[in-house]
Design goal:
The structure holds two protein chains of two kinds. Chain A is α+β, with helices and mostly antiparallel strands. Helices cover 29% and strands 26% of the residues of chain A. Chain A has a single domain, classed as Aminopeptidase (3-Layer(aba) Sandwich). Chain A has helices at 3-8, 24-36, 45-54, 103-117, 132-141, and strands spanning 15-18, 59-63, 69-79, 85-94, 122-128, 144-149, 159-165. In chain A, β2 (59-63) and β3 form a beta hairpin. The termini of chain A are far apart. Chain B is mainly alpha-helical. Chain B is 58% helix and 1% strand. Chain B is built from 27 helices and two strands. Chain B has helices at 9-14, 25-32, 48-53, 85-104, 116-123, 144-172, 197-212, 214-219, 223-243, 251-256, 258-268, 284-287, 301-319, 329-340, 348-358, 363-377, 404-428, 434-450, 452-465, 473-495, 504-538, 542-581, 595-602, 617-624, 650-681, 692-723, 727-730; strands at 731-734, 750-753. In chain B, strands 1-2 form a two-stranded antiparallel sheet. Classes of the chains: A alpha+beta, B mainly alpha. Chains A and B meet through α2, α3, α5, β6 and β7 of A and α3, α18 and α23 of B. Chain B: It comes from Lineolata rhizophorae.
Amino acid sequence: MSAHEASLTNVPELHFVQYHISKEEEYLPVIRQLISKDLSEPYSIYVYRYFLLQWPDLCYMAQDADQNLIGVVVSKLEHHRSGTHRGYIAMLAVEEAHRGKGIATKLVRIAIDAMAQRNADEIVLETEITNTASLKLYEGLGFLRSKRLYRYYLNGNTAFRLVLYLKEGTGLKCPVHPSAAGGEMRSEY
Amino acid sequence: MPTSPSAPIASRRANASQPSCWDVTAPFFEAAKTLGTGTLVKDEFFTLFEAVGALEIMDPKMDSGFLAPGEDLEDYYDVTQPLSAQQVIGVVDQLLCYEMAWHQGYPLLQTLFTSHYIDVLLGSEPSDINQAVFSSQPDTSNDAGGRLVHLVLRAYCVATIKACDFVTQTVTSQNFFEEEDFSSHTYNRNLLVQVSEDHVVALLEEAEGWLEGEGGVSAIELRDVRLGLLSRIRLRKQFLIALCPGLSSEAQVNFNVIPEMLVGLEETHRFAEPVPTSFSQKIQRHLASTVPPRPIINLPFAEAVKKLSLLSKDAAEACRIQQYLKESPQELRNFLWAFNGRKPTPLAFPRAIPQTILFSMPREDWQLLYLKDLAGLVFPEDPVLDPVNWTIEASPRPGAPKHPGAVTAEIIDTFISQTMEGYYDLYTLPCQNRCRVRRMLRHVILFFDSLYNPCENLDTELQELHKDVVEFPLLTWINYQKLCLVEAMVQLGFELDIYLSDELAEMYWWLSRISAHRCGFLENLSAFARERQTRFLREKSIQKASSVEQTFLRLREMACEARSTELLAEAFSIMYMYLQYQHFIPTPRRPLSTAALRYELRMKPFLTVFPPGLPHFDQCYAELHPYGPYDENDFYPGGSDEEDHDKLPPEALRAEKNKLAQEAQRTIKEAKEQLSAVRKMGPGLGGAGCVAEQWEKNIADVLRACVGAGVALATVDKVVMTKGERVGKELSIEIPPSGERYHDWWIVPKVVVKQ
């Protein structure tokens, strides 16, 4: 049994729920509230809807027994201009009081499983180079650092791009058509 | 809102030349009724990037026009009010802090454009210096407070804006990355582009004259305060002159004196009396209404002074490239890489300087540089590059066979035009920020790789005309450059902390293979040069023989350097294998990944590139695991066959693993010998004479890494031998992050003795 599975048993009341569009009024405000806490500049509602309306099945929430939101992961999956079927983890947040219990790892694993089932070649995300907790989480799962992105965030902080290949031959895929999505939170060369 | 016109849409379109407005409220609500709450209406071209750029009106964190109850839209500040000399110092020093934050990459919006003085100066869109004033009413009074504001502070502000204009011009004329390196946005404000530099200098001199003269002396009680202001005005002038685009021949000297001038500022900063009300975040509101309110970037004064000092030193160093334009291309590239490797990495403006100088060279000069490059590696004193070839005129007779010399020139010209883009990149690359250098390397490597077939064809044609040439000379040149780039990309991975600790054995193994390949190229080429030198000596062509000898010596130095990298990388790879076998670097469990998939991901930039040609994962795994898996999380799913090491009894297997420490030590020793040989040859031979100091320091740092690695290995080995399996209780290993190493590319593990 892995560390995160073991520690998850310490929060027995926790259950994991997939987002649903029909419940936007119930879910979205709390999701926004939870995610905004970690952001210097908030995302507009369009950013949330961009993900949640197109990939509601790639957003998962961790709720306690009283249905309070404890954690959330928001992701997407589409054909990237590099030629791969790319899953992208856009947002991940867990209530501060519940950190260190493996909830984020569990959420990420559920999202990645869902993307793998839908034929994703790779999973990609960015994280600040100083965010050791996040780096530890993803690198423990098998992600590698593929690029260092200088002053990637608006506050001037630098990021690592982390990548996980799910299928052999992903590295050999070639750009298909130039109009395909770029897809990161910030534009990139 | 005007009322809705009754004309149908079609007829309105027909009347498009006459602008008209109509109310769409009702039809909009009608249409919106058909959509559920939260439905996203977007076309297929709506990207995430655009979604991220969207704003929500009435959200104070996003809507810059949002007013809290009772809040004013703008802060009022009277820029014509008199200030004391101390207050002027306060404003000026704050402006310097913002200016340096802008140089770091932050937008004007969050820095200089938060100043009411700058806002007023630019708000009237001045087209000449007389319009760049704080008040349309000319300041006729001669009182001290007025002069300090309308002459001294104004001169400083105008010169600051003009400096921003110069910097923006220089940076944006070259390759840079918006926002990441530099923010060129001016929010539709003209940075006094039409105002001549001479007029700005004259204004600064007028302020200088007043401060030096009776007016200043009688107006400012404290002498040191007055001198403080003087030093600020003088610095401003000096900086402006140095920044002038086009970079005069004195630019280097002009930048060089700035660090010492800054001492005068630091000494008098204690007099600064801040005027916080003269800055406001609210100025953003009328400059950029489509971005959320952004915080003002506050750089401490000491930090700003340090940044300006560094920027000036970097700029002065960058200007030095002018001296080497006629030297060897190797010298130029060594200069650029050394410049880029300065710590901290030079900011966008100094990095634009070498580009400005290099890319103002005419194409013919570039071609000559390229030919020199070819001659230095694959065509030493070779008839292929004989200038005569370019002077042979075609025969007027139709169908007459072409002169071989003319055909040769055509082949080389074709080669140059087909590859020039990549050749320019060899010079643009080391002018980017370090992260971008690594990422751009990948693109340049792929470009060079795409030249394989065309170059092979040109070589075949060339070899039909010239029998005594290096085999596939053009391809060799391209492949050699490619190897250098691949090597640099791997090395930058170490520097930028891209690799995890359990990837280090693999990446040093890969680096060793690349350098071995490069060394092989250089050994072949130097052997060819040696042979040619002997032939010239035999033919009594003394001058040519001595020129080829120079090439030979240089190639041998480069081979020696490549060999030292190969050996040291091999040693480090063995060292990390050893540390993994001793369980100092545990393999993470990585439930979602396999070693083969990670290999493919890590090696993605090199999967299709030849040379060096990436070995198959099985081979890599076997070479890095001579005694089987490192630990329980390290397993190779495909490797079920029994290996030799499986037959060994556990004690013997452990002894074999322990021997890796000695093997690493032996290889380090060999690498050190090579490095010492390179050091002995000196920087000049390999074209590093222009950066001799950095060259020496680099070798010294690599040698320190060798020693450090030897000590680390010996420490671990000793404890392993005495404590056996219990070694983990005695020692632990830490991987020092970039910046805390002997050398960024040679990661020496830190051995920590447990209490």
